[in-house]
Design brief:
Elements: H1 2-10, H2 13-30, H3 39-68, H4 76-103, H5 125-130, H6 137-143, H7 146-162, H8 168-190, H9 192-207, H10 213-242, H11 246-263, H12 266-280, H13 285-298, H14 301-317, H15 324-339, H16 347-358, H17 363-373, H18 377-402
Helix pairs in contact: 2-9, 3-7, 3-8, 3-9, 3-16, 3-17, 4-10, 4-13, 4-14, 4-15, 4-18, 10-14, 10-18, 11-12, 11-18, 12-13, 12-18, 13-18, 14-15, 14-16, 14-18, 15-16, 16-17
């Protein structure tokens, strides 16, 4: 038994998740009655995810602000960089929302008990705007009021920075809390194969293999969103602002994009991206070494697009037709949440809870959506990380141009800055 357990633990997590997925499908098809007996495993797993959402969102945003607000990083170059990343992130959320509305991947999706339900009377726009500022932050944390939590986290983080040296102990404490919290998330992720096994077996027992049709459509939307983000946002920035040839740029960037696809991690892509920017794209080393690390923290175009898309997918799956004010809140909250996304597995799914909570979706329904998508999130994560890596290098090229550099020729001898 011990040897089998050790062999199981030695497998990469994604392989164990896939094993749980396959086992859940077989159980749901061959012995559907048994899925009810193990439902408690899936319910406990969903409760663990819900337990982590509020602390992950709050600590990630506060610690991210304090890390980025180092005076060495927030000089003129850092300000331009952050503003540009904010613009590309907002565009990414908009593209994700648009793709979701056009393709409608969530229409008719079977997400357990996620039947249509009323959201209640919508709040007037004035109340929504005023409600961003919490009267009682403890109450907001307990109620999971994500807009209020995000506002307070941003304000708290900036206040730590403004406190200077006296605020540094708090900043270090929060960085430490973030690391501890991410370890806790890692422990919960170790239970993912068993949670997936229980959740998928129940879904298949109720709906058969048709449950996977919407996941395939969602995956297609993710690919489409990545392509549109690169084509409609990154390429125009390269041509019109950075004055670089997109063909030469992406030929030079292929190593970094491949690492992003393989690792699904912006942090893991950073060393390769630095080498590509300096050696192949001939970007000033000072610019590259400042912009790319900032991008690894906040340059989450792929995550932003995915959060926008998945929010629309979730509302469609729950039978909710989003109106314009609701989509506006999704855009605003999605962009802020993407900025604060933590470097942990499937972090965007945790941020999804912040976005959906801001438009009135109950935590239990959100957990069902997360449980439905989580088994497939690794493959989707790999795809959307490519957009984030592309954004980081694009912004670096643009900032380099703003700093007065002239694009040099790449390694192939092709002008990277003609036209």
């Amino acid at each position: 038994m011990t040897a089998a357990f050790l062999r199981w633990q030695s497998l990469p997590l994604w392989r164990r998740v896939m094993a749980g997925l396959v086992g859940g499908i077989l159980l749901g098809l061959l012995w559907p009655a048994a899925s009810g007996w193990i439902a408690v495993v899936g319910d406990l797993f969903l409760r663990l995810i819900r337990m982590l959402v509020v602390p992950v969102v709050f600590v990630s945003i506060v610690s991210g602000v304090t890390a980025l607000a180092d005076p060495r990083k927030l000089a003129a170059l850092g300000g331009r960089t952050i503003a540009l990343f904010a613009a590309t992130t907002a565009c990414a959320v908009s593209i994700g929302i648009a793709v979701g509305l056009l393709v409608q991947p969530g229409a008719g999706a079977a997400i357990g008990s996620g039947e249509a339900y009323p959201l209640g009377e919508p709040k007037p726009l004035y109340e929504q705007l005023v409600g961003i500022v919490p009267v009682n932050i403890v109450e907001a944390l307990a109620a999971g009021d994500m807009l209020a939590i995000i506002f307070f986290a941003l304000a708290f983080g900036f206040s730590i920075v403004l406190a200077g040296e006296e605020g540094q102990p708090v900043a270090r404490l929060l960085q430490s809390v973030a690391r501890v919290l991410f370890q806790l998330v890692g422990l919960v992720m170790e239970l993912t194969p068993f949670g997936v096994f229980a959740l998928i077996s129940a879904a298949v027992a109720r709906n058969g293999v048709a449950v996977f049709a919407n996941v395939g459509l969602l995956a297609l939307c993710v690919v489409l969103g990545v392509v549109l983000q690169i084509a409609l946002v990154h390429v125009p920035l390269l041509v019109l602002v950075a004055r670089r040839s997109p063909v030469a740029f992406f030929r030079s960037a292929v190593d970094a994009l491949a690492i992003a696809l393989a690792t699904a991690s912006s942090a893991a892509t950073l060393p390769v991206a630095l080498r590509v920017a300096i050696e192949k794209m001939r970007i000033d080393p000072g610019v590259a070494s400042t912009v790319l690390p900032i991008g690894a923290s906040i340059g989450k175009d792929g995550t932003a697009m995915y959060v926008g898309l998945l929010s629309v997918f979730s509302l469609q799956a729950l039978g909710v037709t989003p109106d314009v004010p609701m989509l506006g809140i999704v855009l605003l909250t999605g962009a802020l949440a993407a900025f604060g996304t933590a470097p942990i597995p499937s972090a965007s799914l945790f941020m999804l809870a912040a976005v959906l909570a801001s438009v009135g979706v109950p935590a239990g329904q959100t957990a069902l959506v997360i449980g439905f998508v989580l088994p497939f999130d690794r493959l989707l994560d790999m795809t959307r990380t490519v957009a984030s890596a592309s954004a980081n290098l694009t912004v670096t090229a643009v900032v380099g141009r703003w700093q007065g550099e002239r694009p040099a020729r790449d390694e192939c001898g092709t002008s990277a800055g003609s036209h």
